[in-house]
Amino acid sequence: MAINSDFIEGIVIYERKHGESSKILKIFTKELGNISIMAKGSCSPKSSILSLSQVFVEGLYLFRPGRNFYYIKSGRLINSNYELRNNFTNLCYASLILEIVEKSTLQSSSLNNIYRLLSKILRILCSSKDPLAKTMAFILKFMSFMGYRPILSVFDNNFFSLESGVVTKNSYTSYSIFKEDIYYLRNLLYTSLDKDFIYDEGRKKYLFFILTKYLKYNLEIGDFNSLKFL
What is the location of CATH 2.40.50.140 in the chain? Predict the structure, then answer.
């Protein structure tokens, strides 16, 4: 799909310094997925696109094509999500979420749902007291949109398989889980991101470990740099 003269909603999911005053960005859009942007002069305090070229920012962008990159012609800020920088833990979980979106091969049919999910989770993480649970909820919903919704049935013996979700038999790609774990995961998957659920912190960390394994296995992603800080 070619970029036209209309403004496009986008979220900056990656930034890298380029030269003295510019950045290379990846911006996730609901129409085009991930696109590479050269933000010329965006590091200058006087730049008109300074606020639009920060990671986590959501904005309305007007792009123009170049030989190797698109360029930001103009735009308007929708949400800076600046509050993420006030809490290091929330910032790390938000960084992981951006890395998941950046490294995934996204289908055009799911872009709108994933965009709305990403926009909402970033806003919630700005003030959430339970970023671990919110990130697990994001992963479950994201994987569902990607076509890998895990089975969350409850059996007498329960194991979470990296291939499909909850199964009854153990294998080298599965992890033992409790019935209560499955009920908790169901709540995260099928209710709004706004809703909070109380659960054991140790079990949450264990389930987070399994879900990141599940995501990497099915989307064929080697690793996430952001996990080193979590």
Answer: 8-80
Burial string for 159-195 (b: 16+ CB within 10 Å, else e) reads bbbbeebbbeeeeeebbebeeebbebbebbbeeebee
Q: Indicate the CATH number for domain 83-222.
A: 1.20.1440.120
Report pLDDT for 64: 86
Mean pLDDT of 93-107: 94
Judge whether 27 and 11 are in contact, CB under 8 Å: yes
Phi then psi for residue 4, to 5 deg, are -105, -160
Q: For the chain, state the CA radius of gyration.
A: 19
Q: What is the pLDDT of residue 5?
A: 59
Average pLDDT over residues 38-61: 90
| Burial class of residue 80 (count of CB atoms within 10 Å of its CB; 0-12, 13-18, 19+) | middle
155 alpha carbon, distance to own chain's centre: 31
The fold of the 8-80 domain, in CATH, is OB fold (Dihydrolipoamide Acetyltransferase, E2P) (2.40.50)
